[in-house]
Write a structure and sequence with these properties.
With 190 residues, the protein is an alpha/beta fold. The protein is built from 4 helices and 9 strands; from the N terminus they run βαβαββααβββββ. It has helices at residues 14-26, 54-62, 96-100, 119-129; strands at 5-10, 32-37, 78-80, 90-92, 134-137, 142-148, 151-156, 161-165, 167-170. A hairpin with a 4-residue loop joins β7 and β8.
């Protein structure tokens, strides 16, 4: 049997959980030991969703989540907000009278407007697809990485070691503390 690859995923949002579910579902038995670290609480409000590209919808399907189950009702309307605003300033939707005349979203350039999704539904659906080789640890803020020979150790907020991994994937978004460890010093990060 081949060696089990230990994978640490920083971030239990849609990207991190999609990767964990796909590796768990499509990898051979025992190929991966997956640990997902999330700085937030398990059942916090995830906010609203977004329009998803075809590639994102395909990834969700590969992860075992039917994209139609995570779509927000009435989401064929695009809403534009001012920064900090709580009410939309502009709504953009194909008027129903145009639909009656056979005009489609593609005809007027709105074909890039995919159905909006609900982030809570995506995360809940993905959590339901994780198999026994995936552990998700909430309330764990990754603060640093340390190289340990061929492995990478993840370090928590109180400098506690969180484990050594063959591969660390940073899906923690804009507040990433592992960003600085992505490239060797000699590499050009751009």
């Amino acid at each position: 049997m081949a060696k089990t690859m230990r994978v640490g995923i920083c971030g239990a949002g849609p990207a991190g959980l999609t990767l964990a579910a796909i590796l768990s579902r499509e990898g051979e038995a025992g190929a991966f030991e997956l640990k997902v670290f999330e700085r937030g609480e398990a059942h916090r409000d995830q906010g609203s969703g977004w329009d998803m590209s075809e590639a994102a919808l395909e990834a969700l399907s590969r992860a075992g989540v039917d994209p139609s189950t995570v779509q927000r009702e009435g989401s064929d309307t695009m809403r534009f907000y001012r920064t900090g605003g709580s009410r939309p300033d502009v709504f953009l939707r194909l008027p129903s009278y145009l639909k009656g005349w056979g005009v489609t979203k593609e005809d007027v350039g709105l074909d890039q407007m995919n159905l909006e999704t609900e982030r809570n539904l995506i995360i809940g659906g993905l959590m339901g697809q994780l198999r026994g080789d995936v552990a998700v640890q909430h309330n764990t803020n990754i603060r640093a990485t340390t190289r340990k020979g061929e492995r990478v150790e993840l370090v928590g907020a109180n400098h506690e070691p969180l484990g050594e991994f063959d591969l660390v994937v940073d899906a923690s978004g804009v507040h990433s503390h592992t960003r600085g460890a992505r490239f060797a010093h000699s590499a050009d990060a751009f």
